[in-house]
Amino acid sequence: MGTVHGDKGIRAACYKNELTPIGGFTLTAAAGTTNVGTVTIQATNTNGEALSIPRKLQVWISDDADGQTIAAVAGTGTVGVSGTDGYVLKEVTAKLFWEVMTDDTGEIIITLTDTNERAVYVNVANPWTGEVSNAAVVYG
Q1: What is the pLDDT of residue 17?
Q2: What sign does the CA torsion over 111, 116, 121, 127 have?
Q3: What is the pTM of this model?
Q4: Taken in order 76, 134, 101, 32, is the CA torsion positive or negative?
Q5: What values do phi and psi take at 8, rounded to 5?
Q6: Residue 121 lies in a domain
Q7: What is the three-state SS of the chain?
Q8: How far apart are CA 16 and CA 75, in angstroms?
Q9: What is the pLDDT of residues 53-92, one digit of tens each?
Q10: Is 12 contained in some domain?
């Protein structure tokens, strides 16, 4: 079997990811324009410092503050990722549940538009511990 170009670099990146577990998250809610809210999710290491590598995460919208259930009803508008701060890998449930990838600083910004401005929470689960962190959406 021949050598795959870049194989050592890929293995080194995977090794670095394995050695840098997510310690937690910092979630920051901010009001956008009318009917728009954003929540910035920043993955941190076990020392509380921002990660310097991308991470795959599960993010969902809930009606309850503990994030135990996905919201019963999706918002009236769009839900997306802001700018170049990460991207959606897969939409599991329309406007309510996604698998996402952070940018290379461990950050992703989720933007929600809802003309009803329902009280909802953006939730993220730590893949190492299962712990759920969340923030209430604040609309502009």
Answers
A1: 54
A2: negative
A3: 0.85
A4: positive
A5: -65, -40
A6: yes
A7: CCCCCCHHHHHHHHHHHHHCCCCEEEEEEEECCCCEEEEEEEEECCCCCECCCCCEEEEEEECCCCCCCCCCCCCCCCEEECCCCCEEEEEEECCCEEEEECCCCCEEEEEEECCCCCCCEEEEECCCCCCEEEEECCCC
A8: 38
A9: 999 999 999 999 999 999 999 999 989 898 788 999 999 9
A10: no
Residue 30's contacts (CB-CB under 8 Å, 6 or more residues apart) are 37, 38, 39, 40, 138
- Whether 120 and 61 have beta carbons less than 8 Å apart is answered as yes
Q: Which domain holds residue 36?
A: 22-136
The span from the CA of 46 to the CA of 124, in Å, is 17
Is 100 a member of any domain? Answer: yes
In a domain, 10, yes or no: no
Is 80 exceeded by the pLDDT of residue 1? no
**Residue 105: is its pLDDT beyond 80?**
yes
For the chain, the domain total comes to 1
CATH (domain of 38): 2.60.40
